[in-house]
Design goal:
binds adenosine-5'-diphosphate; Beta-Lactamase; HATPase_dom; single chain
C-alpha cells in the first residue's frame, strides 16, 4: 500500500469509532485524547467533550489508579501492555463504580519506528467477570460448605469425643474426689489409730504383767512406769518425773544406773540375768533377783531419748533353785558319805553319766570319763550277761532294777561287790526315757555274808558227821530190835529215823545254800528218763507220807541230759512243800508233759495257795510267807531258792500258779534231749 492510499488519522479514527470495540487514541505524554469512539465514551461515562483533553482531565477519577502510569510506560518503551479482568474505577452517571476490562495499550509507531501515539482498546467484561466471580464464589461457597460440612462432622465427632472425654474427666474427677475423701478419712482414722495406738502403748505398758518403765535422758528421769514396776520397787507414783538416783537413792552404789547410762550412750541393749538388786522396802534393805532388759528408746527421728527397762522378778525361782542346789549338795554329800555312786542312762541315746564315786567303785579315776561300755567292762564275765539282761529287761518292762554283782576295778583290779538300784523316769512327754539309780558298795556286807555262809556250810558239814553216825546207830538198833521182836523200840526207832532224815534234809539244804553262794555247786549231767525219776521220787515220798494222795500222770517217756540227783531234789522239794502247805487227806497231782520242746513237771496241791504279792518272792533265799499257817510249819525258806537255782542252771524256768485258797501248782521246765 502506498502513502497516498493510506487513510489519514482522522479517517482512521472515523473508522475506529464505528467499531463496537471501545477504542481511544492518546498522544503526547499527557495522553491527550485524540479520539475515542462511542463505545469507549460509554465505558468512560463521558461525552465527546472529553476529546482533546489530557486524560487526567478527561477522567479525573483515574488519578491514583495505575492506568496513566501504564500508558506512559507504553509510550516510552513502545511495548504493548495487555491484561484481562482488570478493575478500574470510573465515574459513570455521576457515580464512581468499579468495572472490569480486558484491555490493551499498544504503541503506534511511524516509519522511523518512533512511537507517536497510543492505541487504547478495551472490552467491558464487568458482567462476565462478575458472573464468573459469582460462580467462583458460589463454587467457593459450595466447597466451603462441603468443607464446613465435613468440618462440622469432624467437629461433631470431636465434640462427641470431647463430651466423652469430658464425661470421663468428670468421672475421674468424681473418683478423685471420692478418693480424696477416702484418703482424708483414712488419714483421720490413721491419726485416730495413731493416737489410739499411742494410748494403747501407754496402756500396754501400764497394764503389762511385767515391770516396764521408760526413763528419759542421760539422768534417767522417770517418764512412765507401770504398777508392776512400782510394786517391785515398793514405791508409789510420786517417783514420776524424778531422776532415778533421787527416786531410789539405794541404787547409787549399785551398778544399774551406770548400765542404763551406758545403754543410752552406746545404743547397745543390755540383758541382765538373775541380777541381785538391793532395794529399800518398808525401811529395810531387801535382796531380790531380777532378769531385765535395758533397751534404747528412740524418737520418730531415730534419736535415742531414753531407756526402756523391762524387768521380771525371779527372786522366788532363784531362791528355790538355791534351795534345790543346797538340797542337791546335801544329797550329794550324803551319797558321798554313804559311799553311794549314782548313774544316769538315757535310754534312747545311751548317754551315760556317772558320779565320781561310781567311777571309783568301778576302779576308774574320779576325773576320767566313763562310758557305759567301760562300766560294763568292769563286771566279771560270769555276771556280765546277767547284769546286761537285767538292765535291758528293766528298760523294756519299766520295772525297777535291783542287782548284786561284783566288779573288778579297772585300774586297781580290786574286787568289790555292789548292789545297784535302778528306776525308769519319764521325760517331759511322759515317755520312760531316763534310767538312773544308785550303786552301793556292799563288799563288806558281802564278806560278812560269805563268812556267814562259810560258817553255815562248816556247821552243816560238822553236823552231818554226827548225824550220819546217829543214823547208822539207829539202824543197828532197829535191826536188833526187829530180831528181838521189840515192838516198842522198833516204833521209837522208826520215829528217830524220820527225824534224823528230816534233820539231814535240813542240813543238806544249808550245805547246798552255802555251796551255791560260794559257787561250789557243780552240775553232774547224765542222760536219763525224766518220767522214771519222777516216779521214783513219788515212790520215795509215799514211803514217808501217808497223809496225802499223790497221783502221777505222764504222756510219753522224756529223756534229759541233766544232773539227776539235783533234779530229783527239786521234785522232792516241791512234793514235800505240797504236803507241808495243804491239809491232810488232800490230793497231790503230779504231771510230766512235753510242752514246746520243753519237759514240764508240775505239782498241784489243794492247799493254802500263794498270794500274788508273794509269788515273786518265795523263790528268794530265806523268804517265807508270813501267816498263821506257815508259822506252824517248820522251814527256813531255802527249799524253793535251791530249786530255782538248780532249774536256772539247767536253762529251765520255775514258777507257780495259784488261786487263793484253791491250792497251787508249782511247775518247772527243762530242755529235753
Ligand atoms: P520253807 O518251806 O522251808 O519255808 P521254801 O523255800 O520251800 O521254804 O518255801 C518258801 C515259802 O513258800 C514257804 O515258807 C511257803 O510260805 C511258800 N510255799 C512253798 N510251797 C508252797 C505250797 N505248795 N503252797 C503254799 N505255799 C507254799
Amino acid at each position: 500500500m502506498n502513502s497516498s492510499s493510506r487513510f489519514s488519522s482522522d479517517e482512521l479514527l472515523e473508522i475506529l469509532s464505528l467499531s463496537h470495540n471501545a477504542t481511544a487514541i492518546h498522544s503526547t505524554m499527557a495522553l491527550t485524547v485524540q479520539t475515542a469512539n462511542d463505545a469507549m465514551l460509554a465505558i468512560w461515562g463521558k461525552d465527546r467533550s472529553v476529546i482533546g483533553l489530557p486524560l487526567e482531565e478527561a477522567l479525573p477519577e483515574l488519578k491514583g489508579q495505575p492506568f496513566i502510569g501504564m500508558m506512559q510506560a507504553v509510550l516510552n518503551t513502545g511495548i504493548t501492555h495487555e491484561d484481562v479482568n482488570t478493575p478500574a474505577d470510573l465515574v459513570v452517571n455521576g457515580k464512581l463504580q468499579t468495572f472490569y476490562f480486558d484491555f490493551s495499550y499498544r504503541a503506534i509507531k511511524n516509519a522511523q519506528g518512533e512511537t507517536y501515539c497510543l492505541l487504547h482498546t478495551a472490552t467491558d467484561v464487568t458482567d462476565r467477570y462478575l458472573k464468573h466471580q459469582a460462580l467462583l464464589s458460589a463454587q467457593k461457597t459450595e466447597a466451603a460448605l462441603a468443607r464446613e460440612q465435613s468440618l462440622n462432622e469432624e467437629l461433631a465427632t470431636t465434640i462427641e469425643e470431647l463430651s466423652a472425654t469430658n464425661k470421663e474427666l468428670k468421672d475421674t474427677q468424681q473418683k478423685l474426689e471420692q478418693l480424696n475423701t477416702e484418703l482424708e478419712d483414712r488419714v483421720a482414722r490413721r491419726t485416730m489409730a495413731l493416737s489410739k495406738s499411742e494410748a494403747n502403748f501407754r496402756n500396754m505398758i501400764l497394764q503389762a504383767p511385767v515391770a516396764i518403765g521408760l526413763f528419759k535422758g542421760y539422768d534417767m528421769v522417770l517418764d512412765m512406769i507401770n504398777d508392776k514396776f512400782l510394786q517391785l520397787w515398793g514405791r508409789d507414783k510420786s517417783v514420776l518425773g524424778k531422776r532415778l538416783e533421787d527416786a531410789l537413792p539405794e541404787l547409787r552404789d549399785q551398778p544399774f544406773i551406770k548400765i542404763m547410762q551406758g545403754v543410752y550412750a552406746t545404743d547397745v541393749p543390755y540383758f541382765g540375768n538373775e541380777a541381785k538388786v538391793m532395794l529399800e522396802r518398808n525401811g529395810r534393805m531387801e535382796e531380790g533377783f531380777y532378769n531385765f532388759i535395758n533397751h534404747p528408746f528412740k524418737d520418730a527421728e531415730g534419736n535415742t531419748t531414753g531407756i526402756i527397762v523391762v524387768a521380771t522378778d525371779v527372786t522366788e525361782q532363784v531362791q528355790a533353785r538355791k534351795e534345790l542346789e543346797k538340797a542337791e549338795e546335801k544329797t550329794r554329800f550324803a551319797l558321798e558319805a554313804a559311799n553311794v555312786g549314782t548313774w544316769f542312762l538315757d535310754v534312747e541315746t545311751r548317754e551315760f553319766v556317772v558320779s565320781a564315786r561310781l567311777k571309783e567303785q568301778f576302779g576308774y579315776y574320779a576325773d576320767e570319763e566313763v562310758t557305759y561300755e567301760m562300766a560294763a567292762a568292769a563286771i566279771p564275765d560270769e555276771y556280765k550277761e546277767k547284769v546286761m539282761k537285767a538292765v535291758e529287761k528293766a528298760i523294756t518292762t519299766g520295772r525297777d532294777y535291783v542287782m548284786e554283782h561284783p566288779v573288778i576295778g579297772h585300774h586297781d583290779q580290786k574286787k568289790r561287790w555292789v548292789r545297784a538300784y535302778g528306776k525308769l523316769y519319764p521325760d517331759d512327754s511322759g515317755k520312760l526315757s531316763h534310767f538312773s539309780g544308785l550303786i552301793i558298795d556292799i563288799t563288806e556286807q558281802k564278806q560278812d555274808e560269805m563268812r556267814k555262809n562259810d560258817f553255815i556250810g562248816m556247821v552243816s558239814h560238822e553236823l552231818k558227821t554226827p548225824l550220819t553216825s546217829l543214823s547208822a546207830y539207829a539202824q543197828m538198833l532197829y535191826n536188833k530190835a526187829r530180831n528181838n521182836d521189840d515192838g516198842f523200840t522198833l516204833g521209837a526207832l522208826e520215829k528217830v529215823n524220820t527225824q534224823v532224815k528230816k534233820m539231814s534234809t535240813m542240813i543238806n539244804g544249808f550245805l547246798n545254800v552255802s555251796r551255791l553262794e560260794s559257787g561250789r555247786i557243780f552240775l553232774n549231767k547224765h542222760d536219763f528218763a525224766l518220767d522214771e525219776l519222777v516216779a521214783e521220787m513219788i515212790d520215795d515220798a509215799r514211803l514217808t507220807i501217808a497223809s496225802h494222795n499223790i497221783n502221777f500222770t505222764h504222756s510219753e517217756p522224756l529223756m534229759l541230759n541233766a544232773d539227776r540227783d539235783k533234779i530229783g531234789s527239786v521234785i522232792s522239794n516241791l512234793l514235800s512243800n505240797a504236803v507241808k502247805y495243804s491239809p491232810r487227806g488232800k490230793n497231790i497231782q503230779v504231771e510230766c508233759r512235753l510242752i514246746n520242746n520243753m519237759a514240764q513237771i508240775s505239782v498241784k496241791d489243794e492247799g493254802m495257795g500263794v498270794k500274788p504279792q508273794d509269788i515273786e518272792k518265795i523263790f528268794d533265799r530265806y523268804y517265807r510267807v508270813e501267816s498263821s499257817h506257815t508259822q506252824t510249819v517248820s522251814g527256813f525258806g531255802i527249799g524253793l531258792y535251791l530249786c530255782a537255782e538248780i532249774v536256772h542252771r539247767h536253762d529251765g524256768k520255775i514258777g507257780v500258779e495259784s488261786q487263793k485258797a484253791e491250792g497251787s501248782t508249782f511247775y518247772f521246765t527243762l530242755p529235753v534231749n
